[in-house]
Amino acid sequence: MEYRRLGRTGEKVSTIGMGTWEIGNVREGRGREEQILALRRGVELGINLIDTAEMYGDGKAEQLVSEAFRDQRESVFIASKVSPGHLHHDDVLAACERSLQRLGTRYIDLYQVHWPNPRIPIRETMGAMEKLVNDSKVRYVGVSNFSVEETRAAQNSLSRSELVSNQVEYSLTNRSIESDLLPFCRKEGLTVIAYSPLARGHIPSSGLPRSILEKHHMSPAQLMLNWVTRHDNVVAIPKAAKPSHAEENANSISSRLSEDDYSQISRAF
Question: Which residues does the chain have with pLDDT short of 50?
Fold first, then answer.
């Protein structure tokens, strides 16, 4: 597995992480067991970045993460997110406490503002995030779905901590961040956490260059993950609901494509 620095910190997270959107809704039985096995298999293969949110399954995804890693807390880097309706100062603190309880942990490695809320001053929200850092309940602060202007405002609202990441949608079929947000994050030393890197399951296999797939012995999903993480400040968090998915995702960057390959894929989309 390949690891990359989180923001300007010395923290290293796996280039391929695991997202948990729509995971945890299965209460019991084989489906839930398979989801837990998928998370554990990913960690066995070197993945340490596990991303979740209070919004996912109304907290059930966080509970699943807790169940999967109850005895392995130090081997995973847990990222969670506070919902946009909970961004007032005291609401942020309360939401974090609930997430800590569901996750069964004393701290969250990366706590992110899930979506901006223009009705609540970002300075108020970031003040609460800094308190959580000061109280050792959160290690790093990030945002999600923030524009360049919103990211800059969040940065400027932090006085003692620093912003380390922005989680946004990024894939071969959604490249909107390339015009402004991606270069801004590179310049500012922010990690881009790419969600839905497999285009929400709509993998455009017919458009991927067959010659590159065959040359590198990659599946279409692996090629997409390899491409989306070609920049050294980008990590991806595909969902893996089955152990086989975790294996496929983890092995997607076992080798790197050439610059010509990346360019050919980019031109195809």
Answer: none
